[in-house]
Amino acid sequence: MKVVATILFVFFILINIVLFWPANLFFLNDDFVHIPLTEKGIFFQTNSIRPVHELLVRFDLLCWGRWAPGYHITALVLHFVVTCQVYQLAKTLSARQGNSNADTARKTALLSVLIFLSYAGYSESLAWIIGRGPILSAIFLLYSLQLSFQAGESRALINQLVGCLCFACALFSYEQALLVPPVLWLLCKKEKTVDSSSQVKYAQALCVVSAIYLVARQVQTSEIMGNYEAGNFRNFNLGILVANAGRFLSRLFINPASRTAYVIALFVLLVMLSTILMATAKRLKPVQRKMVFCGWMIVALLAPMLSLGISTNSFESGRFLYLPSIYLSISISSAAVYLSGSPGLSRMITGAVVFGIVAYWLTGKWEAASAYQAASRYALTSHLAVADHFKGQASVYVVDTLYQNYGGIPVFRSGYKEGISWLHPQIDTSKITILHLVNK
User: Fold this and answer.
1) What pTM was estimated for this model as a whole?
2) DSSP label at 174?
C-alpha cells in the first residue's frame, strides 16, 4: 500500500511539473507592473496590503532577477508544500471529525492529495506569478488551522500565538481567508468535545487578527472595502452577487468552456449530484461532520470574492479557487473512501466516479497549461520583437495589433510598456506606438 501510494503521489507531482514546466512560462499582464514596483521597495500597491507576498517577490528578485522561469519554480515548490499540508489536514480531520481509524485516515489523506493535484480550477495560481498569492496564503492558513486542532493540548498558549501569527501572514499574503475565523468560531461553538472551549477561544483570537487586518487596510488605503474588489457589495447589486455565487459554485466542479458546453456540463453535474446525494445521504452520516466543516470553509473562502465574480469560459480568476479546492478535495475524498468500504457495488461505482472526476479535471488542467504556455510565448515574442527592433538605429516602433487577452488569458491588459522598460531599460518606450488593442 505504501509503495502504491508513493508511486501515485510522485506520478501526480510529475504531471503538475510537466504541465507547468517553468521554462514554458513567462511574465504576464500586471506581473510587469507589480514586480518592478516591488523591486523599487514599494510593498503596498494598488490599494492592497499584501506585504508578505511582496517579500516573496523580493526573494525571487534576489534569486532569479528578471528570469521568469525562476518565479515559476518557486510557485511549484510552494504548491507542493501546500500538497503536503493538505495530506496532513485531511488525515487530522478524518481522525478527529470523521471518527476514522488510522488506515482510513491515511487513505482519505492520499486521495485528497491526488484529487487536489488533479484539480484544474486553480491553474492560474501556478501559471501567473502575481496569482501565486493564494498559494502562499494557503501555507500559513493550513498551518494555523492545524494548530487549531491542538488548541486543547499542553502547549495551547504557544500554539495559539503561533497560529495567530500564521493567520496574520495568510491575510497579509492574500486576504481571501478573512471570514474563516467567524465561521470557525460558529463551528467550534456547536462542537461538544473536550477541546471545544479551547478551540472557541482560538477562533476568537483569529477573529481579532481579522479585525486587525481590516484596521491596517483602513489605515493604509483609507478604505476597508475598495470599489474594485467590493463594488457590488457596496452598491448592494444583489442580482450580480447571486449570479456570481452561481458561477463560483459551478466553477468549483466544471472546467471553463464555451457557453453551450458549460450549460450542458452544468446540467450533467446537477443530475449527478442529485442522484449521488439521494443514493448516499443516509450512508454518509459518519463523515457528515467533516463534510459540513469543509462545506462551510468553502463558503467562507468564496464569500469575499463574490463581488469580483469568476469567468466560466476561460481560466481567468482561477486563483480564487485555490483555497476552496483544498476543502473540496478533502470532502470528495472523505465521501469516496467511506462509500468504497460499503458492501455491494459501492466500491466499483465510487471508484468509477472518482476516476471520472480526476480524468475530467486533469483534461482541464492540460487545457489551462496549454493556454498559459501559448500566452507566455506571445508575451515573450512580443518583447523580443521590440528588443530586436531597437538594436538598430530605428527611431519608432509601431505595433499594429497588440492582444490584451490571448486565448482567454490576460497578457497585456496592462503592463506592456512597463514590462519593456523593466526588461529592456535602454529602450525609450515613448517611441512605441500601438495602433490596435484587441482580444484573441
Assistant:
1) 0.92
2) -
Give 279's DSSP letter: H
Unique residue bearing C-alpha cell 483602513 = 218
Cell representation of residue 47: 490599494
Task: Provide the residue ranges of all domains of the chain, joining segments of one domain with +.
Answer: 2-368, 376-439
CA distance 423 to 66: 7
Sequence-distant (6+) residues with CB within 8 A of 216 are 49, 172
> How many Å apart are CA 410 and CA 439, to the nearest integer?
9
CA angle at 123 for the pair 122 and 124, rounded to the nearest 5°: 90
- Beta strands in 192-250, from DSSP E residues, in sequence order: none
Contact between 338 and 287 (Cβ < 8 Å): yes
Strands (E), 288-329: none
Residue 207's CB is within 10 A of a number of other CB atoms, namely 16
User: What does the alpha-carbon distance between residue 221 and residue 225 come to, in Å, rounded to a whole number?
Assistant: 9
From CA 412, how far away is CA 419, in angstroms rounded?
Answer: 10
E-only strand ranges, 46-200: 48-49
Mean pLDDT by 10 residues, the chain (440 residues): 82 95 94 91 81 94 95 97 94 74 85 95 94 96 85 67 94 94 86 68 91 91 76 84 90 82 75 67 68 90 91 88 95 83 67 86 94 95 89 79 89 89 88 83
